[in-house]
Structure formats: C-alpha cells, structure tokens
Design goal:
Elements: H1 2-20, H2 24-31, H3 37-44, H4 59-78, H5 84-114, H6 122-135, H7 141-151, H8 163-171, H9 180-192, H10 195-210, H11 215-234, H12 238-264, H13 270-275, H14 278-284, E1 287-289, H15 302-326, H16 334-339, H17 349-358, E2 370-372, H18 374-386
Parallel strand pairs: 1-2
Length: about 400
C-alpha cells in the first residue's frame, strides 16, 4: 500500500510540475512518449519537468567538436567516390557536421576558454584558445578575451566597446529608428546574401588571425590556411578541399554566426540602457529555443494527423538544422550565461538555466525571458532596434 501511495504522490508531483509550466517543452513532455524526451531536451535546449540532470565535463564539448569536424571531413571525402545520389546525401551530411563542429569550437570551446572554465589551469585554457583562434581564423584569443569581458559588463554592453554592437551596428550596418521591414531587408540583402559582406567578413577574420600582435599565432594561422590549399592542389583535389573544408570554414560558419549574433541581444527602453543596472542585463538578453508548441489535436483524427505531421516536419528539418548549425552548444541559453558568466555549471546549461528559472533567478529583479524559434527571436530583436531612438546606441560610420 505504501508503494502505491508513493507512486501516486510521484505522479501528482509530475502533474503539478507540468501544470506549473506552460512552455512548449512542458507541453511536449505531456503529449509525447518518454522515449523521445531526451532528444527533445537536446533539440530545444529545455528540460522536461522533473527531468534528471546530466553530468558532463567541459572536455566533453572539446571531444564532440573534434568528432563532428572529423566525421564531416570523412563523409566529404566519401561523397566523392560513391554514386551521385548517395554522394549528394553524404555531402549534405558532411557540410552540416563540419559546420556544426566549427560552431562548437567557436561558441563553446573557444568562448569558455576565455572564461577559464574548460580546462583546470588558465595556461591550458589560453593555449587551446590561441590554437583555435589561429587554426579557424578567429580573432586572436587574447584580444577576444579582453573584448568579451567588456561585452559582459553592463557599462559596456551596446556601446562602441561591445563586440555585439560592433558586429550588428558596425559590420551589418543596421541602425536604430529604421523601420523593422528595412532592417530585415538589410539583413537579407546586405548581409546574409551579400558576397561583398562575406568577403569583408572573411578578410576581417584573416587579418585578425594573421596580423595579430603575436608572430607565432600569425605563422600558425597562415600555415593552417595555406598548407591544406597547397597539399590539395598538388594532389589534384583542390575542388574537394574548397567544398568540404573551405566552404564550411568561411561561408557556412559566417551564416551561422550572423544568425546566432542577431538573436543574442535586444535593445531595452532608452531609460534602461542609460541606467545600465541589473534590469538592463535582464532585458538585453532572452533565451532562444528551437521548437514550437505541439498541436493540441489528437493524432488519431485527420486534422490532428496533419497538424502533428507538420509539427514533426518542422522540428526535424528547420529546428534541427538551427540547433545543429546556428544555436549550437549552450547558445540557446545565452541569457543564463550573461547572468551567471563565471559558473562552472554551464556544461549542463539545459538544467542549470531551468533551476535558476524555477528559483526565480536570485540576485536579479526579473526572471528569465524566452523566445521560441530563431527567426522569431531575430524579428523581436530587430523590432527593439527599430524602436530605439538614434543617439541611445552608437552608429558606426559606413
């Protein structure tokens, strides 16, 4: 009898947790089988109510990034020696995995090395960070770390010294007070699909990696860039190199970077930007989670079958690609990182953020905000920039 009572109590607690949360992830937990819940937690970067935490070491992400890049390159090579249809599928998988691995190196490993939270010693974090910045044409690790610390300061965020503002207002040439429709036009025409923008972006990366203050770093960066070109050309596989490595390293990674940065921060009301207090930090960043509310219809009706089929199609195509390529690693929980930048709990960011949400985010005047869907998040962020008066944030000369 006591066992039955305990089970009833556990079921009641789970039901109460599901009732307390009304977000899409809680609805997925309530309406879908337990077998798919771990996948949905990873895909959405949100845990199901009462879900057990997952212990990972920081080096888990290092190994994962290495494995993704290696697997992507291997599939790329295989795509050149199999029949055309199979080769096209393998090439798609290759480009996806390689771009995802490069994103993990950039967003997770390189970034958290700058916070000193990947390896046990600062020397190891710095050495790995410098190697990553040279090999993958990122800004020299030392410069990046200095600028990134400014980015985490409420006094510097959305100013001339902020890396986010430099990219959005400087590189992308977006401006406050412009209609949201015009901002979207600039994003699509002048940024995402602009060869000139991507060339400027690449040249900026190359200068940052190859013309830094550190001669050794510059040599490594130039060798990492030139040697594969030379070797593939001499071997008669220059086209293969360009497709399976150079394309993910440049255009695809830059596309992913654009999408991720545009959804990272929004522009609060001018009074909050001027105050630069904790409320400003709360409203300048929100969680961005791949996914959407599941249908309410039963899958056993025709309307429900259509609705659920469309939902799964969206989740396994658009949302999956967003998660694998753009919102990699802990990028969906960027708001948690800004509120707790020094925490070592970032390795289980999915549950760590949710614990903070459930606790009411102690130490901050507002709890977390969230947006479901990358494109909706970008749209909301552009709307806040459109509503921001000129003079509140810097405007870069064009």
């Amino acid at each position: 009898m006591s066992t039955i009572v305990a089970e009833i109590g556990d079921a009641g607690a789970r039901g109460a947790a599901l009732t307390a949360r009304r977000d899409p992830r809680a609805e997925m937990a309530a309406r879908l089988p337990a077998a798919v819940q771990p996948f949905l937690s990873w895909l959405t970067a949100r845990p199901a109510p009462e879900e057990a935490e997952v212990a990972r070491s920081p080096t888990h992400f290092v190994y994962q990034a290495c494995l993704l890049v290696a697997a992507g390159l291997l599939l790329g090579v295989l795509s050149t020696i199999v029949p055309m249809v199979t080769g096209a599928f393998l090439l798609f998988a290759s480009l996806t995995l390689t771009t995802s691995g490069l994103g993990l190196f950039q967003v997770v490993v390189f970034h958290h090395c700058a916070h000193g939270t990947v390896f046990r010693t600062w020397e190891r974090n710095r050495a790995v960070g410098r190697l990553i910045s040279a090999v993958f044409l990122f800004k020299h690790f030392d410069h990046y770390r200095k600028e990134h610390m400014h980015h985490h300061s409420a006094r510097k965020l959305l100013t001339e010294e902020d890396e986010f503002a430099d990219f959005v207002l400087g590189m992308c040439r977006l401006e406050p007070e412009l209609p949201k429709r015009e901002l979207w036009r600039r994003v699509l025409v002048n940024v995402v699909f602009s060869p000139g923008f991507h060339l400027r972006f690449l040249l900026r990366r190359m200068r940052a990696a190859m013309r830094s203050h550190d001669p050794r770093h510059n040599v490594v960066a130039m060798a990492a860039f030139a040697l594969p070109v030379l070797a593939s050309t001499l071997a008669g596989h220059a086209l293969t190199y360009l497709v399976i490595w150079f394309l993910p390293l440049t255009l695809f990674l830059q596309w992913a970077t654009i999408g991720r940065i545009l959804c990272e921060h929004r522009f609060p009301e001018p009074a909050l930007i001027a105050a630069r207090d904790k409320e400003f930090v709360c409203l300048a960043t929100a969680g961005v989670f791949p996914g959407a509310h599941p249908p309410r219809d039963s899958a056993w009706s025709l309307a429900g079958l259509v609705a659920w089929s469309g939902w799964w199609l969206n989740m396994l195509t658009v949302q999956l690609l967003v998660r694998v390529i753009v919102l990699v690693g802990d990028a969906p929980c960027h708001d948690f990182h800004h509120r707790r930048p020094s925490t070592k709990q970032w390795t289980d960011y999915i549950h760590a953020r949710q614990r903070d949400v459930d606790a009411g985010c102690p130490g901050f005047p507002r709890n977390y905000g969230e947006t479901w869907g990358l494109f909706r998040a970008i749209d909301e962020n552009l709307a806040t920039l459109s509503a921001t008066p000129k003079g509140v944030v810097p405007i870069w000369p064009h």
